[in-house]
């Protein structure tokens, strides 16, 4: 089905449509200085396509929440929710094909980047059966895919940039069509901007931005001057979904409006200067201290005893000492509790480590008994079904796995445990859950990599039943019913 979204008119007054189906396959980049009409353009696109495709809007200023009343978009106010909740909402939006606006208004820059990264990553990691087509509109994209780190933590910048790169580079196969808007191309990461095939370039004044815009539009540098002369609300369009040659588009009217608009001149208040001065410099009322109810005076003997009592440090009751066996039991119970959460398989170890520390303190341990590398190792073992300390019983297997990357330890031990017990070979789905992925292709590459290190020998019989041998340990799984 071909749907033409009317964006406005060219200089001759002819309508300029965007082919929505082509846009879903080729993505869109919108650029223009503040006040050039980017938000108006995005609103026109969203309104005209709202009834044809699911829409997801990353809204740093809360401008697009007004789509809710007219078009039924669900507004998610990020200030009221945690990263984990936001990621869960994103997964539900993909499952139910709901159009949503993620409002990041009220968050600092680092909080906005964290929230957007969690939301976009959850959209990207949705199961294959939920890969429905969706427009993912990111306003002020330079905030989430910056060329430099700025004042935010490096891990936050990397997470946000990775999520934006996945959206623009790999999102198409998952049904996600990125539509990103930025004030300055020079501040937007090049690997994100380069993946768009459609461009709408608005007014810009800096030479470096005009040069990049001209390159993307296939114009000569001397022609880039016309970008500076564009009127507000007029954009140069190019791309397979719009036009094969650059064409000027005057964006049409919209039905909804942002909660905040461009500032307008209004008359100054009338009045005498002396009156205004008296109003501004009026005495500030001091806050009166809260009245406290009178306390009865203690008996004199208690006062003298308190004075004569030697001062000393305030004693804090110590937590009970735990033996190694008790500590290991607590660790195993905490790991079971963490992995009982359905979302734990998709969450990275660094995020789960924070939950681990909290649960350990709640269980009576004064500090986390494991550092992050040690926790990552025990978490991989737990995902393979080995919760107690693995060193004594699984020392040989752990020694073999030492040459593998840390994230492969869980799948290796899952297969080793089945081989040691002579159980059927785990299916690709079981390995995927242990590996923290939903991609069967990644599972096949994982098994092939371990086999290339001569730690596995895989055999598939004529009926498609698979078995895996660990030659160094002499363990072999039973043949699985069907190799996934």
TrEMBL record:
One MF term in the entry's GO annotations: ATP binding
Descriptive protein name: ATP-binding protein
Native source organism of the sequence: Sphingomonas desiccabilis
Upper lineage: Bacteria, Pseudomonadati, Pseudomonadota, Alphaproteobacteria, Sphingomonadales
Entry keyword set: ATP-binding, Nucleotide-binding
Domain Helicase HerA central stretches: 14-79
Matching InterPro entries: ATPase_Atu1862_pred, HerA-like, HerA_central, P-loop_NTPase
Classification via Pfam families: DUF87
Family matches, as Gene3D superfamilies: P-loop containing nucleotide triphosphate hydrolases (3.40.50.300)
């Amino acid at each position: 089905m071909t749907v033409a979204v009317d964006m406005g008119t060219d200089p001759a007054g002819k309508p300029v449509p965007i082919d929505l189906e082509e846009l879903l396959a080729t993505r869109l980049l919108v650029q223009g200085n503040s006040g050039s009409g980017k938000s108006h353009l995005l609103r026109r696109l969203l309104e005209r396509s709202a009834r044809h495709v699911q829409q997801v809007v990353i809204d740093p200023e809360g401008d697009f929440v007004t789509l809710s009343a007219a078009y039924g978009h669900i507004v998610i106010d990020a200030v009221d929710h945690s990263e984990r909740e936001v990621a869960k909402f994103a997964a539900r939006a993909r499952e139910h094909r709901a159009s949503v606006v993620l409002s990041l208004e009220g968050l600092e820059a680092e909080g906005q980047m964290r929230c957007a990264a969690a939301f976009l990553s959850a959209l990207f990691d949705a199961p294959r059966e939920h890969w429905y087509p969706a427009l993912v509109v990111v306003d002020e994209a330079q905030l989430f895919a910056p060329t430099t780190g700025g004042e935010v933590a490096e891990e936050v910048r990397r997470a946000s940039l990775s999520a934006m790169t996945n959206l623009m580079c790999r999102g198409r196969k998952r049904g996600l069509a990125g539509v990103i808007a930025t004030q300055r191309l020079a501040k937007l990461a090049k690997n994100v901007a380069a993946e768009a095939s459609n461009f709408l370039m608005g007014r810009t004044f800096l030479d470096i931005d005009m040069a990049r815009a001209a390159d993307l539009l296939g114009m000569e540098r001397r022609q880039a001057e016309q970008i500076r002369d564009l009127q507000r609300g007029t954009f140069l369009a190019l791309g397979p979904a719009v036009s094969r040659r650059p064409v000027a588009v005057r964006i049409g009217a919209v039905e909804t409006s942002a909660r905040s608009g461009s500032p307008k001149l209004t008359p100054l208040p009338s009045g005498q200067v002396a009156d205004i001065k008296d109003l501004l410099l009026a005495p500030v009322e001091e806050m009166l201290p809260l009245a406290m109810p009178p306390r009865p005076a203690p008996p004199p003997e208690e006062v003298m005893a308190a004075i004569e009592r030697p001062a000393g440090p305030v004693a804090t009751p110590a937590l009970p000492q735990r033996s190694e066996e008790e500590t290991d039991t607590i660790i195993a119970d905490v790991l079971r509790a963490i992995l009982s959460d359905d979302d734990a398989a998709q969450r990275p170890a660094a995020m789960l480590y924070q939950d681990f520390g909290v649960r350990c303190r709640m269980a009576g341990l004064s500090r986390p008994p494991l550092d992050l590398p040690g926790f990552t190792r025990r978490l991989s073992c737990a995902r393979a079904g080995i919760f107690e300390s693995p060193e004594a019983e699984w020392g040989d297997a752990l020694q073999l796995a030492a040459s593998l990357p840390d994230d492969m330890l869980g799948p290796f031990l899952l297969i080793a445990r089945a081989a040691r017990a002579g159980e059927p070979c785990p299916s690709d789905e079981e390995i995927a859950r242990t590996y923290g992925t939903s991609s069967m292709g990644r599972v096949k590459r994982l098994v092939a990599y371990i086999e290339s290190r001569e730690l596995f020998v895989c055999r598939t019989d004529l009926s498609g039943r698979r078995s895996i041998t660990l030659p160094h340990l002499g363990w072999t799984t039973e043949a699985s019913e069907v190799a996934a």
